[in-house]
Amino acid sequence: MTARRFRQLLNARFAGVLLSALSMMLAGCATSPQLADATEASLPMRANIEGVPFHAQQEYQCGPASLAMVLNSQGVDVAVDTLIPQVFIPDREGSVQPEMLATTRRHGLIPYVLNNSFDALLIEIAAGHPVVVMQNLALPAWPMWHYAVAIGYDREAEELILHSGEEPERIESFRRFDATWARSDRWAFVALPAGQLPEAIGAYRALDAIASFEQVQGAQAALPAWEALVSRFPTSAMGHFALGNARHGIGDMPGAIDAFREAVHHDDEFAVAWLNLGLSLKNQGSDEEAQRALSRAADIPGQWQAQAQEALKTY
């Protein structure tokens, strides 16, 4: 080994030690995350999800390993080696978030991205949903991206339990974990079967997740998810509209009409819902009610107005 090569290796090793030390110092300076009062009042002091399989994460393959853990926990029989070519990007030496989500959909589950809060993370764990979390174990300028699966917590000890790296049920303090998680903007998701919703999800995020799943798996597969959404968020006009479209897609015209009626009931200015209601009623031979719905759609300025006016000409 030349003297120059020895100095390069020595400098690289020194840089790695310095980077690790700086990362630990920053984590030590971080404060423990604070929960909202409502979360404090309702959340159990401890939770641990039993039976989540552990797969040791080889170098740069924490994404496939983490994804296999959550898929396996939901009964999807898929091996880490099968997932590697689906999510691992050699040029990036890792897995990127869109591929993690897309692969989850291809395997029949719906990935719901959480709302970047520690509250949501603990609420999902308490609900029995393992959470894939993305961390930066180094510094923002020199990121070392890492996926792990959060499976438990202890609020009294302020500790999180993770399947991480080569260590099952790794224990990290809330403070240290949140410092590394914050560097990914607290990105996390749960993977659930259609028909189940996360506990800590809002209507908009749920709509976006289910719509993306439907594009991959189709209306029949997404139908239980839309039904769960309108059950959780009964005043969501967009939710009822999406449910109507899914029912229409599988040939359930009476069900589609019911859903479109709910959509316009909750949003009288929802032009395309009025249009779809009118066209569906016309298809079923309910001409008088169809005309009223199409007339309402034709009265609302916007991109659907001309189509509604054209449909009215057939009467």
Notable characteristics:
single chain; 315 residues; alpha+beta; Cathepsin B, Chain A; 3 domains; seven-stranded antiparallel beta sheet; two-stranded antiparallel ribbon; 54% helix
Quick structural overview:
This protein is of the alpha+beta class and 315 residues long.
Describe the structure.
The chain is of the alpha+beta class. The chain has three domains: 1-30; 32-192, Cathepsin B, Chain A; 203-312, Serine Threonine Protein Phosphatase 5, Tetratricopeptide repeat (Alpha Horseshoe). It is 54% helix and 14% strand. The protein has 14 helices and nine strands. It has helices at 3-29, 37-42, 62-73, 80-87, 97-106, 118-126, 174-182, 203-217, 219-232, 237-249, 253-266, 271-283, 287-299, 305-312, and strands spanning 46-48, 88-89, 94-95, 110-113, 131-136, 145-154, 159-164, 167-173, 188-192. The strands form two sheets. Strands 1, 4, 5, 6, 7, 8 and 9 form a seven-stranded antiparallel sheet that branches. The chain has a two-stranded antiparallel ribbon with strand order 2-3. The protein is elongated, with a radius of gyration of 25 Å. 39% of the residues are buried. Mean pLDDT is 90; it is low at 1-28. Keywords: Signal. Residues 51-162 form the Peptidase C39-like domain. InterPro entries: Peptidase_C39-like (IPR039564), Peptidase_C39_single_dom (IPR039563), TPR-like_helical_dom_sf (IPR011990), TPR_rpt (IPR019734). This is Tetratricopeptide repeat protein. It comes from Halomonas chromatireducens.
